[in-house]
Amino acid sequence: MRSSAPDILVAVWQVIATRGIDAVSFRSVAAAADVSVGRVQHHFPTRTGLIRAAARHMIDSASEAFPETDARTLLTHPFSGAEGRRSGTAVYYAFVAASATDPEIRRTLRDARAGVSEALAREVGKSAATRLLALAEGLTLHIHLGMLTSAAAQTLMGEALDACRRE
């Protein structure tokens, strides 16, 4: 039985990964977390707040897992084992889609991207950081859709990063 707020937020990710963001409800999250609906509502009084907190927790967890590091790691960490981690990518893109109508989720994702961009800019400059981040997002999507392997994406990103460093 998982009952802490972070455990409940991980259960939100599980629901999104298996059934989509529209399936997130107090009942579905409680079942995934093996807690009562009341426990979920105790931590998160509204469905919107629950989803927003889950998005924030995903960003915070990624930041903890990949503290400021070199440009290659910042850009390619979504590629490593991506074929086997489709659920994480699917959850991230569900939050990206939700950001179209939820300004708080949009701000959370934008702020996270800004932090990564700033870290990259210190190594390769602002313009190159912007280009490389856009490429990383596109490559991640291609891996998720089965259009590219992680290894191929790693190679393409390495080439792009090396080109930016030569500029």
Automatic annotation (TrEMBL):
Domain HTH tetR-type: 2-62
Keyword field: DNA-binding, Repressor, Transcription, Transcription regulation
Record carries keyword Transcription: yes
InterPro entries according to UniProt: BetI_C, Homeodomain-like_sf, HTH_TetR, Tet_transcr_reg_TetR-rel_C_sf
Pfam family, one: TetR_C_6
Name of the featured protein: TetR family transcriptional regulator
SUPFAM superfamilies: Homeodomain-like, Tetracyclin repressor-like, C-terminal domain
Segments of the chain annotated as binding DNA: 25-44
Gene3D superfamilies linked: Tetracycline Repressor, domain 2
